[in-house]
C-alpha cells in the first residue's frame, strides 16, 4: 500500500503532493507553508485510499462535532481489509478509551475521569512547582542549556510517573517506549506504510510497557497507594469497575499522550517567546500572562498537529461526501491558522483576546488531561522566565521525526 500510494501521489496535482511532502523530515521545522497551501486548495477526497483530508477550521470543527464521527479504527474500511488479509487489528492489545466509541468510551472515560478531577489536578500544583524549581536550580546561569532535555522533557515524565506511581528510576525505559509508540500515532503510518520498518521495535516497546503496567496493577491491588493506578482500581460507577486490561490500556494511553504532548507544548511555547523576546520579558513581569501564552501556543504551534476520525455512516462535510468506513484526516495545525477563523493567524499573539483552538479536541473526546497539561506548562514557563530573564536562542532547534506529535528533539538556549 505504501508504494502504491507514493507512486500514485507523485502523479497527482497539488495539494495531494503536499501530503507526501509533510512526510519529509526537512518539512518538520516549519510545515505551516505546506498546511496553508493544502487549506487554500480545499478538502481532498482520495477514494482509492478511503481517505478524506480537511484543513479549514470549519471543516475540522464539523467533523469533531459530527455524531457519526467514530474513533474506533475497527470501523475503518482499510483496517477491515487488513484484518481480512490476516493482519492483527490491535497488535498492542485492548485500546485506550480514546480509540473507542460509545457506549464503551462513555463507560471507560467516566470511570477514568475521577482520577483527573479538578481537586486532583489542584493537589498536584505544589509538586509541579517543586519539580520545576529543582530542574531549573540545576542549570548554571551563563551556560547553554537544552531546554528540551533540561526542562520540557523531564517535567512531564516526572509528573506522569508521580501520577501513575512509577519509580523515576524506570523513566529511561518509559521514554524509549513512549517515543517509539508515539511514532505509530501518525495517521500517515496507517495508510502509507510509513515506519513499517520500525514495527518490530514498536511491538517490543508496546509489549514491554503493557507488561510493566500489568505488574504495577497487581502490586497496587495488593498494596494500594495514593496514585492513579490505585485510583483506577478503586474507581466504581453504579457497581461497574475497570478490568485489568482496561486499566493497563488507560495507563498506557495516558503515559504516551500525557508525556509527548506536554513536552511539545512547553518547548513550543518557549520557542515562540524566545523568538519574541518582548514576550519573554513581559511574562517575567506578569506571570498571569502564562495561561494566555499557553492557549496561543496551542493554536499557533499545537503539540498535536493532526488527528483523524472514521465515518461511522455515510457523511457529508461541507461539499465532500465521505462514505461509511473512510478515514477523515483533520489537519488541526492548518485549521488553527485559518484566516476565516483567526485574524493574523501566522502571528504569535497571546493578547489577541479570546483564543479558540481545537488542540484538545471537542465533544466527548475532549482531552482528559487538558487541565494538567495547562498547569504544567503555565508553571514551567512563568518560572523559567523569572529565573532566566535574559535567556536567548543559542541556535536553531532540531525536530523529532513525528508528524502528528510534532516536537523538538533539542532547543539550545543561552541562559
UniProtKB/TrEMBL annotation:
The keyword Oxidoreductase applies. GO terms for molecular function: heme binding; iron ion binding; monooxygenase activity; oxidoreductase activity, acting on paired donors, with incorporation or reduction of molecular oxygen. The keyword Metal-binding applies. Keywords: Cholesterol metabolism, Heme, Iron, Lipid degradation, Lipid metabolism, Metal-binding, Monooxygenase, Oxidoreductase, Steroid metabolism, Sterol metabolism. It holds the Pfam family p450. Signal peptide: none annotated. GO terms for biological process: cholesterol metabolic process; lipid catabolic process. Its cofactor is heme. Belongs to the cytochrome P450 family. It comes from the Bacteria. This is Steroid C26-monooxygenase. Pathway: Steroid metabolism; cholesterol degradation.
Amino acid at each position: 500500500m505504501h508504494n502504491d500510494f507514493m507512486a500514485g501521489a507523485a502523479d497527482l496535482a497539488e495539494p495531494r503532493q503536499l501530503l507526501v511532502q509533510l512526510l519529509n523530515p526537512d518539512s518538520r521545522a516549519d510545515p505551516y507553508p505546506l498546511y496553508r497551501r493544502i487549506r487554500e486548495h480545499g478538502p481532498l477526497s482520495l477514494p482509492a485510499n478511503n481517505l478524506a483530508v480537511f484543513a479549514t477550521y470549519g471543516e475540522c470543527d464539523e467533523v469533531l462535532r459530527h455524531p457519526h464521527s467514530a474513533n474506533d479504527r475497527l470501523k475503518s474500511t482499510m483496517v477491515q481489509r487488513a484484518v481480512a488479509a490476516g493482519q492483527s487489528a490491535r497488535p498492542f492489545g485492548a485500546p485506550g478509551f480514546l480509540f473507542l466509541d460509545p457506549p464503551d468510551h462513555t463507560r471507560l472515560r467516566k470511570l477514568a475521569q475521577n482520577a483527573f478531577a479538578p481537586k486532583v489536578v489542584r493537589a498536584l500544583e505544589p509538586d509541579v512547582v517543586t519539580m520545576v524549581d529543582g530542574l531549573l536550580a540545576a542549570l548554571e546561569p551563563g551556560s547553554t542549556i537544552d531546554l528540551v532535555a533540561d526542562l520540557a522533557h523531564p517535567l512531564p515524565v516526572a509528573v506522569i510517573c508521580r501520577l501513575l506511581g512509577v519509580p523515576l528510576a524506570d523513566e529511561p525505559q518509559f521514554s524509549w517506549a513512549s517515543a517509539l509508540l508515539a511514532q505509530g500515532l501518525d495517521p500517515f503510518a496507517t495508510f502509507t506504510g510509513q515506519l513499517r520498518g520500525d514495527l518490530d521495535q514498536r511491538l517490543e516497546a508496546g509489549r514491554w510497557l503493557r507488561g510493566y503496567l500489568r505488574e504495577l496493577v497487581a502490586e497496587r491491588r495488593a498494596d494500594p497507594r495514593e496514585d492513579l493506578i490505585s485510583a483506577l482500581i478503586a474507581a466504581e460507577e453504579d457497581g461497574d469497575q475497570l478490568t485489568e486490561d482496561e486499566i493497563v490500556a488507560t495507563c498506557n494511553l495516558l503515559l504516551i499522550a500525557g508525556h509527548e504532548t506536554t513536552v511539545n507544548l512547553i518547548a513550543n511555547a518557549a520557542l515562540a517567546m524566545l523568538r519574541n523576546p518582548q514576550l519573554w520579558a513581559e511574562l517575567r513581569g506578569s506571570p498571569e500572562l502564562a495561561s494566555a501564552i499557553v492557549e496561543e501556543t496551542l493554536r499557533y504551534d499545537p503539540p498535536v498537529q493532526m488527528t483523524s476520525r472514521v465515518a461511522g455512516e455515510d457523511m457529508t462535510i461541507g461539499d465532500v461526501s465521505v462514505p461509511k468506513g473512510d478515514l477523515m484526516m483533520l489537519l488541526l495545525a492548518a485549521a488553527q491558522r485559518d484566516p476565516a477563523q483567526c485574524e493574523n493567524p501566522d502571528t504569535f499573539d497571546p493578547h489577541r483576546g479570546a483564543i479558540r483552538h481545537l488542540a484538545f479536541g471537542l465533544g466527548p473526546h475532549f482531552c482528559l488531561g487538558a487541565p494538567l497539561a495547562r498547569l504544567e506548562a503555565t508553571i514551567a514557563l512563568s518560572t523559567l522566565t523569572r529565573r532566566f530573564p535574559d535567556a536567548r536562542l543559542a541556535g536553531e532547534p532540531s525536530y523529532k521525526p513525528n508528524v502528528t506529535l510534532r516536537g523538538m528533539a533539542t532547543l539550545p538556549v543561552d541562559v
